[in-house]
Amino acid sequence: MAPNALHDSGHVVNPPKCYPGTRIAIIQTIIDWVAGSEGANRDKFFTWLAGAAGAGKSAIGRSVCERCKEEGTLLASFFFGSRDETRNHSRLFPATIAYQLCFISQGLRMAVSRAIEYDPFVFSRSLQTQLKLLIMDPLLANYGNEPQSTPCLIVVDGLDECSDEPTQQDILDALFSLATTPSAIRIRVLVCSCQESHIVTMFRANKISGLLFKILLDDEYSSKQDIELYLRDQFQ
Q1: Where does the chain have alpha helices with state H?
Q2: Number of domains composing the chain
Q3: 186 CB contacts (<8 Å, ≥6 apart)?
C-alpha cells in the first residue's frame, strides 16, 4: 500500500489543513451530505470539490477526513501526489483503501484477509474487481444487516495528479461501480481536483452526472472572512 497517500500520513511534510475557524460552511456542507441530511443532495453519491490549484481543496479534504474519522463515518482516503512515485498512480489505490478497512473493525480485517488468502493474485485484477472483492464484499459481510452504522465515506484528493488521463477515468469508473452496487450500504465518494477539461467531461458523463453534487471553490464560498480571521490571529 501507499502510506504517503493517507490523510494523516507522517511522511508528508507540512500537509495542508484548514486554519481553525475557516472553511466552516464548505466542511459542514460536506459533513451534512455524508450524513444524508443535505436536502436535495442526500441521494447524490458523488461530491466533486473543484477549484484552481492552491484554492485549498486538499486542506478541506484533510479536514473532512479528520472530522468524519471522529464521527465514525470515514471509510478510507487516498491523496494523490504528482511528485511522489508511491501515490501518483493507481496501482496501490485498492490495497491502500483495503488496508484502512482493516482498522475499522476486527470483522472487516478478517474479511479482507480471507479475500486475499482466497485469491493471492487479487491485487493484479482490475480496479473494479479489487474494490468489489476487498471493499464492498467485506462491508456487506459485516454491515449488511445494519447499514446505518456503516462507515461510508471515501475521500480521493488530487485526482488530476494521478499519472495519466485513462487511469483517472478508470478510478472514477471503479468508484462509480462501488457506489452504485445494489445493496443497503451506500458508499459516498468525495473527489477533489482541479477543473481540467477531461475531468469535467468525465463528470458530465450520463452515468455519473445524475449522482453528482458539485462544490466549486469560487465566490459562492468567499474566503475573505477566513483570510481576515487568519491574519488577525497571527498578528495577535
Answers
A1: 24-35, 57-71, 93-101, 106-118, 127-131, 137-143, 165-179, 197-203, 206-209, 224-235
A2: 1
A3: 45, 147, 152, 179
What pLDDT shows up at residue 134? 94
Helices marked H in 72-125: 93-101, 106-118
Instruction: Report the candidate in 139, 71, 132 with the shortest Cα–Cα distance to residue 101.
Output: 139
Q: Judge whether residue 208 has pLDDT over 60.
A: yes
DSSP 135: I
DSSP conformational letter for 223? -
- Give the residue carrying C-alpha cell 461510508: 152
Q: Say what the pTM is.
A: 0.88
CA dihedral for 108, 112, 113, 117, sign (positive or negative): positive
Q: What is the CATH classification number for the domain harbouring 91?
A: 3.40.50.300
The per-residue pLDDT for 21 is 67
